[in-house]
Amino acid sequence: MSTQTFSSVAVHVVGQYNEAGKTLVSAYRTGAHRLLGGAASRFAAAQKVTGFLANSLDIDTSRVVALMDRVAAASTNGIESVAGRAAQIESPVATSMFKTLNAINLPIANVSAQIADKIVEGAKQIEVRVSGVDLPKAVRTAKAKVRAAAKPVRRAVRKAA
Fold first, then answer.
1. Pick from 14, 49, 56, 116: CA 20 to 30 A from residue 25's CA?
2. What's this model's pTM, rounded to 2 decimal places?
3. Helix (H) and strand (E) counts for the chain?
């Protein structure tokens, strides 16, 4: 496995957040299409309007995704540029300082990467739920319940008056 650096973790986090954002936009698009499809199926007069809205939705969400990709690419280029310039510094003091900062900040960056991974997983679950496709559920094994010995039931007996 290659050595992790602060910049490689930062690039990973940017990529994960970009993926999560695009997944959520896709979920929004899918949910809105389902909503518009339901309205169009109920009302014949609404078909033209829902078709227009669906087309506008597709155009707008495509623009949002393109913007997200541009921001992620710019962020990644900036991180890589700074890391490249830092690698060119040959001063022993600066190199020592960079190694120390990397060692201090890398555990925090790894936690941020794990959080970003979880956010992507959650976004994918939202997308699946909105799409209406049922995933096969994990098979649960039934655990036998251990019951204590049953106590005798006391019943009140009515006395005849």
1. 49
2. 0.71
3. 3, 0
Q: What is the pLDDT of residue 1?
A: 33
Cα-Cα-Cα-Cα torsion 82, 93, 97, 80, nearest 10 degrees, comes to: 10
* CA–CA dist 54, 33 (Å, integer): 6
What the block records as the tokens of 147 is 């019951």
Q: What tens digit of pLDDT does each residue of 110-121 get?
A: 999 999 999 999
Q: Can you give the pLDDT at residue 60?
A: 95
Give the list of residues 6+ apart from residue 66 with CB closer than 8 angstroms, or none.
none
Q: What is the pLDDT of residues 4-30, one digit of tens each?
A: 788 899 999 999 999 999 999 999 999
Total count of residues recorded for the chain? 161
